[in-house]
């Protein structure tokens, strides 16, 4: 029998517990505002490589405003168990539609028939978006963070005689949540074409999601030469506002020459793995000591958890996208929009806003029918709820207060 895991270093008022029987999982959740029954729920969904712990700085202020705040370790992460962590294992269980079943099962187990808001960061953002699009009766508003959502993939319309694609049902061409899995109706280059174009650049490159889908990615990061703790320090630093090179801007199109303008943590050098990529930008000892948003004891939580579980669970989410595994079922919702109130929050220094050219505009213009605006927070990069939690809380509470007044 495995030894019990040590307690997480959580602020007073946040509890950690396991909720069994959730779509085959025993889900680890953090909760705040749980002492009083009947409170409206706010569900917080993390991204990669993160944990429920990533929400620790925003949970108590939301609870103090009257909410039951719930943050799970998503399937593939942390102290949630019951998922298949093998590269050649059950990849399909990490499809967005099955991840939605996880969230619905968790809410039912907690006694909630609906939530005031679902909030998703990074890869949690498209999951939150799909929750709101498919089940607006349960997820009554949505806040997307760092990753825009441009709507479901198009459903191709074919000529009944020739079989040729003659049109599409859905929004204008969009890579949506699967940027490397081009849909049949999309005029954008296919994943293979983009990969070939990136390889042909003067400085050959590759897309990080393509790399994350390889068998080597987990081992490359988990057992890297610099050690896991240093890898995570460099990875978080490289994508934060602390790295001066993060000056994002809109890209013109989904083309190799445009994608190559992004930092190497998104469009990597062809021969490098992610550990070597971020090692070039490892902060100095003085910079680490000065980092207030992720001091070393807090980073150690991530190191200990990923040392135990590895990264493959999180990487399976990418593989569901890059292989096109989930496109067909998502096309069932071609043309559907998010009809509940929606908003977007990101760090002003976050390249994630623009990594899918045109996605931000599609989110605001067509994918969300009741979109309430883009909120970019100065002094934050990709890890916005950790880098600038006070500003994130202000935006979240303003959004939630508008719901209460309508």
Instruction: Specify the overall morphology.
Output: globular
Q: Which architecture of the largest domain does the CATH hierarchy give at level 2?
A: 3-Layer(aba) Sandwich
Q: How many independent structural domains?
A: 2
CATH topology of the largest domain: Rossmann fold
CATH C-level label of the largest domain: Alpha Beta
The strand line-up of the biggest sheet is 1-2-4-3-5-6-11-12
Share of residues in strands: 15-25%
- How many DSSP helices? 16
Proportion of helical residues? 25-40%
What is the CATH H-level superfamily of the largest domain? Answer: Alpha/Beta hydrolase fold, catalytic domain
Structural category: alpha/beta
Low-confidence stretches are 172-186
Order of helices and strands: EEEHEHEHEEEHEHHHHEHHHHHEHEHH
What does this entry look like structurally?
The chain is an alpha/beta fold. Helix content is 34%, strand content 17%. The protein is built from 16 helices and twelve strands. Helix 1 packs parallel to helix 16 and helix 7 crosses helix 11. The N and C termini lie far apart (52 Å).
Question: What attributes characterize this protein structure?
Answer:
single chain, 406 residues, alpha/beta, Rossmann fold, 2 domains, 8-stranded mixed sheet, two-stranded antiparallel sheet, 16 helices, globular
List the helices and strands and how they pair.
Layout: E1 15-22, E2 25-32, E3 41-45, H1 56-64, E4 68-72, H2 96-109, E5 117-121, H3 124-134, E6 142-145, E7 155-158, E8 165-169, H4 191-199, E9 205-207, H5 208-212, H6 217-222, H7 228-238, H8 256-259, E10 267-269, H9 274-279, H10 285-290, H11 296-309, H12 312-322, H13 327-330, E11 338-347, H14 359-367, E12 368-377, H15 384-387, H16 389-404
Parallel strand pairs: 3-4, 3-5, 5-6, 6-11, 11-12
Antiparallel strand pairs: 1-2, 2-4, 7-8, 9-10
Helix pairs in contact: 1-16, 2-3, 7-11
